[in-house]
């Protein structure tokens, strides 16, 4: 009896896999390897290089391992890039999720934890986003994540699916020095890559309606995030009824410029960031209230900003 992790060879997925293994929940990994890293998956964890668009193979894997639940992280995860590639985004995130749900139905698996995103909120009109805040996504990525939530809720009505969706935005840090964020679009990897090459990092957009003109985000540590996914899976398996969505947020916003200051302090490398134009699809501010997840999933921020930067930087050096 196992838990399937789609996208389990990715940055977030690999942390979830290890957290599952630590509590003997027997992870099984499916990953298309479009952005995953095979070395992120422990050798003793069953691994399948399969795209979730292939529901037949998914069904076979689920039945072979007697999977009792799915943590669904696979997908195309870049808000800015999704504006350029909307069809790819919807294929991977909407069609892929529908195929996964079909495979689960065919194998009679009833538990799913869905990796959603704070991008479903778009640019909220409130300073602190709650689960009741209206959803107005501003990118195909955000739209696809919201549709994924709808698909899961509709399948729950039709088939009795037990589920919850976890919304979060900027995931940083590392729980193990060999697990790094390999994304070519995320802020931390871009900053560290520039520093390793002796270049100045870039800030995309300095004219937002924020205190210092740069985007404000909710930065959460990937290891804390993984624990929340595992706790949600445990609760579903135990038959506990969860809310349909939870925000995994800090309640505090950190600007891109503040991130740059923390990076300079942690690395000891002084620099002046290059100011670039905004990227399409990036809202000015998203800060989420995590109180509901704290109540039901034991969610908490266990790391300071500097600890997030330090662990991410150390992991990034394993690539050099």
TrEMBL record:
Pathway: Carbohydrate metabolism; galactose metabolism
Broad enzyme group: isomerase
The entry's keywords: Carbohydrate metabolism, Isomerase, NAD
Superkingdom classification of source: Bacteria
EC numbers for this chain: 5.1.3.2
Necessary cofactors: NAD(+)
Database matches in Pfam families: Epimerase
Recorded GO MF terms: UDP-glucose 4-epimerase activity
Annotated catalysed reactions: UDP-alpha-D-glucose = UDP-alpha-D-galactose
The family this protein is said to belong to: Belongs to the NAD(P)-dependent epimerase/dehydratase family.
Name the UniProt record assigns to this protein: UDP-glucose 4-epimerase
Residue ranges constituting the NAD-dependent epimerase/dehydratase domain according to the UniProt record: 3-249
GO process terms (BP): galactose catabolic process via UDP-galactose, Leloir pathway
């Amino acid at each position: 009896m196992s838990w399937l992790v789609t996208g389990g060879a990715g940055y977030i997925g690999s942390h979830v896999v290890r957290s599952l293994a630590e509590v003997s929940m027997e992870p099984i990994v499916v990953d298309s390897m479009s952005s995953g890293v095979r070395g992120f998956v422990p050798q003793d964890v069953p691994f399948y290089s399969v795209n979730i668009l292939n529901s037949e193979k998914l069904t076979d894997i689920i039945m072979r391992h007697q999977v009792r639940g799915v943590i669904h992280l696979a997908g195309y995860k870049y808000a800015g890039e999704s504006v350029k590639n909307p069809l790819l985004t919807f294929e991977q995130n909407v069609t892929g999720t529908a195929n996964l749900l079909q495979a689960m139905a065919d194998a009679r698996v009833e538990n799913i934890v869905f990796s959603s995103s704070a991008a479903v909120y778009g640019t909220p009109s409130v300073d602190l986003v709650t689960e009741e805040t209206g959803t107005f996504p501003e990118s195909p990525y955000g739209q696809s994540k919201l549709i994924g939530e709808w698909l899961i809720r509709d399948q729950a009505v039709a088939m009795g699916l037990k589920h919850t969706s976890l919304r979060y935005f900027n995931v940083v840090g590392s729980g193990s020095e060999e697990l790094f964020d390999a994304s070519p679009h995320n802020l931390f990897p871009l900053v560290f890559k520039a520093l390793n090459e002796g270049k100045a990092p870039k800030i995309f957009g300095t004219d937002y309606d924020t205190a210092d003109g740069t985007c404000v985000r909710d930065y959460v540590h990937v290891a804390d995030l993984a624990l929340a996914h595992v706790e949600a899976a445990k609760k579903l398996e135990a038959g506990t009824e969860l809310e349909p969505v939870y925000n995994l947020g800090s309640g505090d916003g950190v600007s891109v410029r503040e991130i740059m200051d923390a990076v300079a302090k942690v690395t000891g490398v002084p620099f002046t960031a290059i100011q670039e134009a905004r990227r399409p699809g990036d809202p000015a501010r998203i800060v989420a209230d995590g109180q509901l997840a704290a109540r039901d999933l034991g969610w908490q921020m266990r790391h300071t900003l500097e600890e997030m930067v330090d662990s991410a930087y150390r992991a990034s050096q394993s690539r050099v």
